[in-house]
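S.,

Sequence below, as promised.
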Amino acid sequence: MVPLNVLVESLVIGNIYYFINPQINSQEPHPHLYVGDKDDKSAFLICGTSQFEKRKRYFELVGLPYETLVRIRPSEDNKLTTDTYINCNDVQTHDFNSLFTYSKFSFYGTTTKSEQYEVKNGISISVLVEEDDKEIILGQFPDFDL
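The prediction came back faster than expected:
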């Protein structure tokens, strides 16, 4: 088995990982976008969804800006098969040990610099992400020259 610290060090901001998320009502693995480490024991990830209309209705109902819902189009690099939407208002914290031990965690693909920029912007304007978490996350994102 690969040591936990090696797995943690292999995480890259903007990469997509598949795993079973205990925070959602499903036993199927879902794509998640890694957006940084919270501390030395946990990571920030955002679960992706293909259910655009459901997300759109939620955003309209709650009054969230659409810039916080980022579309990731399928590509050879990300290996997604359908448009996947990243809700930048729903950053989740996941314990490294649980991720790598129980959830069938696996690397799936990479996002583009422009998609990463959109996610960074979405997190920065979110009113639902706690300010302390937002500061930690945004401090780990690269600067973008687009």
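The mean pLDDT is 93.

Coffee later?
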